[in-house]
Amino acid sequence: MKKYRLIASSTMGLESVVKDECKNLGFENVETFNGRIEFDGDEKEIVEANLHLRCADRVFIKMGEFKALTFDNLFENIKRLPWENIISIDGEFPISWVSSVKCKLFSKSDIQKIVKKAIVERLKVAYQTDKLVETGAQYRVKIQAHNDIFLVMIDTSGEGLHKRGYRNLINEAPLKETMAAALVLLSRWKGGDRPLVDPMCGTGTIAIEGAMIARNVAPGVNRNFASEKWGIIPEKLWVDLRDEAFSREDYDKEVKIYASDIDPETVEVAKANAIRAGVEEEIEFKCMNFLELETMAEKGCIISNPPYGDRLLDEDAVERLYGLMGDIFQMRFPKWSYYIITSYENFEKVFGKKATKNRKLYNGGIKCHYYQYYGAR
């Protein structure tokens, strides 16, 4: 098997979470950069990263990284890369994404054309052909340029890794599955006798991701990836590693998850999502106002993505909601841990308690903080 430098792209603020996932999967030479984690691997690691990474956005093969100040520079550097090692003779290779920040070469459309032309020339020579038909598997090329340094990648995932396949209907302010999984992982909740509660569950993403983590269900096991159609990865490898992922699922551990929302239609959508994810047995859904929330154990974990100003409520409503949350959580759940993500800057003041720790995250492009309150040990 060939060795590649692989990249797991990440939402800003989640790099350390994705890095830990990569290390736990046994990947080697793991390095962290803004918005991405790099590691070494072969075809097996490409499959494992796509099947198992919960918090990464996509998995790429890193083709190269170089400085380019002119379009001639760019053309020659792109042409020098071994595209034929990845792209088949009939492969379709759109230049699907280009960014250029603080670079002399700033025209995205020109960068796109030059990169395409250079790859075409390289592949024509490699395959000794005058024409590339591009009717086969898709190899989407991503170019990320910053301060004249060009990072060149091929997307192995296709659709983003947050597309687990269980969510069809989206509510007004969806939380990506990758972000929801990160919120659970950062809480250190793993199941057992401590319940997990989401009192404003929306379409159930936090509860579902929590159940999948507790049961060790691989997030990508029930979906397909662009690289499944590539000649460089044997079909048997996908089958074997999926089977291995299924065999690692844990249905012996106790798992108690409670999810509720005030909107009955949303709760029905959440239930349908849990059924599609195969974790409906682990989650008890209820339609109720969070004011009715009562403790069901001495210690547990609340994780919530409540409405906030940039989303669904005006400032007065947000302050009333967060003040009530602070009262209820601290009075009824004194020994519990709670974790709340919001973009509202005065959250701690209105909630009535300073967080043990908070972390800056970007949810749907909105700057948020994840306020973490640690309960009794």
From TrEMBL:
<feature type="domain" description="THUMP">
    <location>
        <begin position="70"/>
        <end position="155"/>
    </location>
</feature>
<dbReference type="Pfam" id="PF22020">
    <property type="entry name" value="RlmL_1st"/>
</dbReference>
<dbReference type="InterPro" id="IPR000241">
    <property type="entry name" value="RlmKL-like_Mtase"/>
</dbReference>
<dbReference type="InterPro" id="IPR004114">
    <property type="entry name" value="THUMP_dom"/>
</dbReference>
<dbReference type="InterPro" id="IPR054170">
    <property type="entry name" value="RlmL_1st"/>
</dbReference>
<dbReference type="GO" id="GO:0032259">
    <property type="term" value="P:methylation"/>
</dbReference>
<feature type="domain" description="Ribosomal RNA large subunit methyltransferase K/L-like methyltransferase">
    <location>
        <begin position="164"/>
        <end position="371"/>
    </location>
</feature>
<keyword id="KW-0808">Transferase</keyword>
<keyword id="KW-0489">Methyltransferase</keyword>
<dbReference type="InterPro" id="IPR029063">
    <property type="entry name" value="SAM-dependent_MTases_sf"/>
</dbReference>
<dbReference type="Pfam" id="PF01170">
    <property type="entry name" value="UPF0020"/>
</dbReference>
<dbReference type="Pfam" id="PF02926">
    <property type="entry name" value="THUMP"/>
</dbReference>
<protein>
    <submittedName>
        <fullName>Class I SAM-dependent RNA methyltransferase</fullName>
    </submittedName>
</protein>
<dbReference type="GO" id="GO:0008168">
    <property type="term" value="F:methyltransferase activity"/>
</dbReference>
<feature type="domain" description="RlmL ferredoxin-like">
    <location>
        <begin position="6"/>
        <end position="60"/>
    </location>
</feature>
<dbReference type="InterPro" id="IPR002052">
    <property type="entry name" value="DNA_methylase_N6_adenine_CS"/>
</dbReference>
<dbReference type="InterPro" id="IPR053943">
    <property type="entry name" value="RlmKL-like_Mtase_CS"/>
</dbReference>
